[in-house]
Write a structure and sequence with these properties.
InterPro entries: Methyltransf_11, SAM-dependent_MTases_sf. This protein is α/β, with parallel strands linked by helices. It has helices at 11-39, 56-64, 77-86, 124-134, 153-165, 174-177, 183-192, 212-216, 225-232, 235-248; strands at 46-50, 69-74, 92-96, 109-115, 135-146, 195-209, 257-270. The chain has a 7-stranded mixed beta sheet with strand order 3-2-1-4-5-7-6.
Length: 276
């Protein structure tokens, strides 16, 4: 689904919504249905989507999980506006809130999920505890994150080239900044948060680009770590980076680019004895 047209004189909305859709939203849309299928939640469950962004995961839940309701929260008003504009479903409601301190009662939901958000939260343990707190005993908590340090070729190609040209680019690299995005740290986080029957799996997708411009243009949007680094450069350095990445990427006979992307997904069951 393409993001709707919106006024470009709203910079926060443009940067928060449309730029993200072009940069990562279109790939998350391929991961989200695989994630919800893996959860296998029964019909009629009450869900909360934490850090809903532009509504990718909320949309997948509504389409394939037959929920009784989905509460979608995000700290960004711009993302929420984009999500609401795309999802016209009476089962969905949207709230602006911090993922680390959610205004919801204990034991309110059957399922708490989060997509591609955990690594951006300063207190990841607090966020996990919030997920557990809001889910009834026996309910499910689950999330997924990009494998930034490994099989996320869109970003790995960008940062491997950028760091070779400029070691300061490492300060923006989520492969370095987000060690939580690996199976063992994810499992440890859940187990310490009072989650039982923890399972971790990889979700692999292909990311196909029509040509180099299709790959490169989203890095000029300023939303996300790689685009922020890219737009921090002067024009000469940015052009040098562009040419180096173009030379590195594999191309088909018509200039098409086919890369791989991996997400790590984790799920578990909330126990009767939640941590305080």
């Amino acid at each position: 689904m393409e993001a709707p047209e919106m006024r470009t004189d709203q910079p926060d909305l443009w940067g928060g919504g449309i730029a993200y859709e072009r940069y990562m939203g279109r790939w998350s849309r391929k991961v989200a249905p695989l994630f919800t299928d893996w959860l296998g939640a029964p019909s009629g469950e009450s869900w909360i989507d934490i850090g809903c962004g532009t509504g990718v995961l909320t949309s997948a839940v509504l389409k394939s999980c037959d929920p009784s309701r989905v509460v979608a929260i995000d700290s960004s008003a711009a993302f929420l506006q984009t999500a609401q504009s795309q999802l016209n479903d009476p089962r969905a409601s949207f709230r602006q809130a911090d993922a680390q301190a959610i205004p919801a009662d204990d034991n309110t939901f059957d399922v708490a999920v989060s997509g591609l958000v955990l690594n951006f939260l300063p207190d990841k343990a607090a966020a996990a505890r919030e997920m557990v707190r809001m889910v009834r005993p026996g309910g499910v908590v689950a999330l997924y994150v990009w494998d930034y340090a490994g099989h996320m070729q869109i970003m790995r190609t960008f940062f491997d080239v950028a760091i070779a040209l400029d070691p300061k680019a490492r300060e923006f690299d989520d492969g370095v900044k987000a060690p939580i995005c690996r199976p063992d740290p994810l499992a440890e986080l859940f187990e310490h948060s009072g989650v039982a029957d923890v399972e971790v799996r990889k979700i692999d997708i292909t990311t196909a680009f029509d040509g180099f411009d299709d790959y490169w243009t989203p890095f000029l949007g300023g939303t996300g770590s790689a685009p922020k680094y890219c737009m921090s450069l002067d024009e000469r350095a940015r052009e040098q980076l562009r040419q180096a990445i173009c030379n590195r990427l594999p191309k088909g006979p018509d200039g098409e680019i086919l890369l791989a992307a991996r997400a790590w997904a984790i799920k578990g069951r909330v126990t009767d004895h939640k941590p305080s």
